[in-house]
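Why run this: before we spend reagent on co-expression, it is cheaper to look at a predicted model of the complex and decide which construct boundaries make sense. The entries below are exactly what would go into the expression plan.
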Amino acid sequence: DTAVSQTPKYLVTQMGNDKSIKCEQNLGHDTMYWYKQDSKKFLKIMFSYNNKELIINETVPNRFSPKSPDKAHLNLHINSLELGDSAVYFCASSQDLVAGVNEQFFGPGTRLTVL
Amino acid sequence: SQQGEEDPQALSIQEGENATMNCSYKTSINNLQWYRQNSGRGLVHLILIRSNEREKHSGRLRVTLDTSKKSSSLLITASRAADTASYFCATDGGAQKLVFGQGTRLTINP
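The model came back. Tokens follow.
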């Protein structure tokens, strides 16, 4: 009965590889997000989707491609991984599109380590 | 650029004491939220305060908002070991997204 789930929890890979992180929410929310948290705990939004439509792309390199097959899922695919991509990636969801109106529900995070 | 900045960056107190964390932001907001992050976990929403509110309570949490100073504070009363976590403020920095500060790392010593 987890609200927002992500897989995998840990991901260790070599530079240049392509990897995906999956996210699912069972809250019936319309909006989903991807955040990146760096080693200094700074949390920054990467993307948001509303009903499968891309709303925010926060100047993220095009090596990152989100895909939303339905409004309950938002996956993140990363091509040609670089050392600087090492971080914790969080998926989140909220009921409404307008930020700040409702709380966001976060997944447990995926710790990506690029060697 | 970063919207919210928490102060202090780290805080260590004894169990039972009160903990106060502050957040400053730069632009006008509609709402401000506080989140908690336990080590190795995702963020958990604590409280939302609207721009027309000055104070809000939830259990042992008290949040204040001063829009004239563009600042908010989170007070945790009668702290417990389980309150050890990082605390983040988040503002609606422009439409459709939340902008988070860097967080205050709170340690409650038994």
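The first strand of chain B starts at residue 5 and ends at 7. The CA atoms of residues 4 and 25 of chain B lie 4 Å apart. Bring this page to Monday's planning discussion.
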